[in-house]
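Submission sheet (multi-component)
Chains listed below:
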Amino acid sequence: MIKMAEDVKDEQKMQSAEPSAAENDSAGPQDMSAKIQGTVGRPFVDDAKIKMRGVNVFYGEKQAVFAVDLDIKENEVISMIGPSGCGKSTFLRCINRMNDTIDICRVEGSIQLDGMDIYESKLDVVPLRARVGMVFQKPNPFPKSIYDNVAYGPKIHGLVSRKSDLDEVVESSLRRAGLWDEVKDRLDSPGTGLSGGQQQRLCIARTIAVSPEVILMDEPCSALDPIATAKIEELIAELSENFTIAIVTHSMQQAARVSHRTAYFHLGNLVEVNETDKVFTNPDHDLTEAYITGRFG
Amino acid sequence: MTKAVSTQAELVERSLKKRYRAEKRFKIAGIISISVGIAALFALFIEIFGNGIGGFSQTKIKLDIVLDSEELEIYDVNNEEEVSNGYYEGVIRLALRKKFPEVKSRGDRRKLYSMISDGASYRLRDLVMADTSLIGQTKTFWFLADDDFDTYFKTLLDGDPYTARVDEKQRAWVDQLIEEGNIEKGFNTAFFTSGDSSEPELAGILGAVIGSLLTLAITLALSFPIGVAAAIYLNEYAPKNRLTELIEVNIRNLAAVPSIIFGLLGLAIFINLFGMPRSVPTVGGLVLTLMTLPTIIMSSRAALEAVPPSIREAALGLGASKMQTILHHVLPLALPGMLTGAIIGMAQALGETAPLLMIGMVAFIVDVPSWFTDSATVLPVQIFLWSDSPERAFVEKTSAAIMVLLLFLIFMNTMAVLLRKKLERRW
Amino acid sequence: MVIFDETKTGDKSEMDKMHLDQHISQQFNDDLEQLREHLLAMGGIVEGQVEDAVRAIETADTGLAEKVLQVEEQVDREEIELDEECTAILVRRQPAASDLRLVLMVTKANRDLERIGDEANKIAKMAIAISDQGGTSPRGYVELRHIAKSVQKMVAMSLDAFARFDVYEAFKVVQADRQVDQEYRSAMRELMTYMMEDPRSISRVMNIIWALRALERIGDHARNISEHVIYLVRGMDVRHTSLQEIEQKLEQK
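Outcome: structure written.
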């Protein structure tokens, strides 16, 4: 316990230093090469939708994510929190291989979606991304009409053949994103003309139009005002009935509000995963405690 | 406390004055440099306009022509060869002699004949050939005056006659013509409807303009697709390694290579190696393609890079393939920038002279080219040629041609701006 | 009766765990520290109130009893102020984890302290009533004195446990409360017997019983505070839990 207080001080001093130095918990007699003495809490669940084991991510020589083990349950909302540069976004982007677009990024370990290894060399990322959709930090609608924005995914994946079916998909997606009533009279106007919050909901509608199983959200509300944020959070709660959602957020309150489980990342390590209520009232790990109470970060 | 505050305020006050003075000086320096630039531009414009405006008008002389078949030596109006070989010059001279009966001596007569352009007889021939029924009639025609008279008459109208090329007698004739109202200044249609000529009053820019358009057509058709394709590959597909870096650096360097080097390259490759003909728009277009490619590639890459990465991410995140992402989202957003770059590249190519000199497009070509393989010249080269000609009348032709070229350039640049405004989408 | 090893006291690290002074926001540190000090100050007042009330009843000192009644008003004001401070922290800082538990604990302990003050008030009133009745029957005083001593110690210990974030100290209070409850029950039985033996003393003994009852309630509140301390430090809810279970849970950490 005494060690803990020192650790926190160490953290503050050497944020950029070798993670292993800061992470040494007194927990067990693991060998020194291990970067972290495991993850505390409940990283594993039965019948996981996504099963990640020993995920390491490198940017060139620099390692950004260290041996993360994590399960995500079906229809669960799991939030990932942690200080800037803790690797949470990088980790999230592994799940639909968005990291492929970065040349120097390398991912090790196994990530299974319903038992299928998504990093298998033969696997095509196109169908994977149809199954694992993504919503980004900045609302990024295409500079096209609202209708085309939502219809784009179903069109390129050939999910619908008739125009009437497409109309239906567009309407139901917009309805589920809670945007239909606001835009039904101007589906032809550009999506970029909407307000920030509406744009983000349009992006969510665009994502769910493809009927993915998993939706990854990378700080979806960081560019939005509180009202728009509340709407998105409400939407996340509704969507969790049908989708598995992993959300990275800088707002601890948001994580506390929307998620069932919360994962805390620190310097590329997954420190703690627990029920959200537990994490925010009585976290198991001292680093988590220090972070969520604002003692560093 | 209060005292300290007041001293601080005073200090600021004092330093303020100094700052304002410095700021004023800074501003004045800027205004001066801009004024110098604008003054230079105006001087250029005034010079060109002053010289060139005369190029768009032409002196004409009215003559009553008796199209006597005897004089014309045309006996069978249906014999085309005979009609075409008719002695048209004779009837014009006859008309001149009639108008100035007091001119008797051989030398004076020659001077008299020289008042009318050499092209007059050809024009008359064309008219008669088009309508043989004219033969035997007496008709009134306006003929182009010869360049020396043209210059004299126009300068006379401006109040400062240029008399170096006309003597007393000739001036008297002109005065007589003015009195009779048989000489006047009209719009110079020949300038826009004919090719080059050694006679300034007959010389036009049509051949050069068509030559330029043909050359540019080739340049655009080749450089835009190649440039855009290269830019897309380099930006979206090429791995980041030594080779691509080298290519990039070289493209940048090529943009800075003097254009005459491209002319030499074209001469060596297209003409000497591939044996293509000289002076043709095709080769000119190929050379200019080489020259504009770096510009287009660089501007296209800049346009591609300006597309926000979030749009790419959005498309990729939805499961679009790389090609779909590029074709559906990146290219439409980058196109305005690419087109602007292309137009600016074209404008550059339009004004280019040096490389075309190397591949022989500097030849004296009278005929207006009609196809890519016809011998041709281009506007800037035409300007270069005229500026080199000794005749006084070519000075105004040169300036007039420069005005036309400038007009084209302004038009293209305006197009670039308008296109950009119209196509540019906000995101 | 003592289950717990007496030598075990809160080690230093338990206190460190709270490290109220390590927030990025210095203001937040100050707010929390002030909250803690304020609660302790209020605890001090209430502690004094209990002590005065007990002495008043023991020595039949009406003046002292009156003083207790006056202090009560101050305690009420303190309670409201403390609640406002808690609300302000909740609103401004949205505390989480240990900070959240501290604020929650303070609101609850605040209420318990105020109740302790109320009970002390009742004892003071009984003191006045007993002294008004006159008479010198010593019946019930022994029990009263004994229980009062235990309860006073419990209050002091619970405040101490909070001051040092010491769960072991807090646990001792929980243990002690069971003892006090037992003593209270046996005292009641005894006083019942007195009343049956001597019906004339009923009203007087009844006053003693009321005072005893108040003391017992004070003990309950002290136990509540200690339970909140355990929640604060360990994040586990030990209300309505048997002593063994609490001990097991404490040992687990």
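Remark: The domain at 24-252 of chain C is CATH 1.20.58.220 (Methane Monooxygenase Hydroxylase; Chain G, domain 1).
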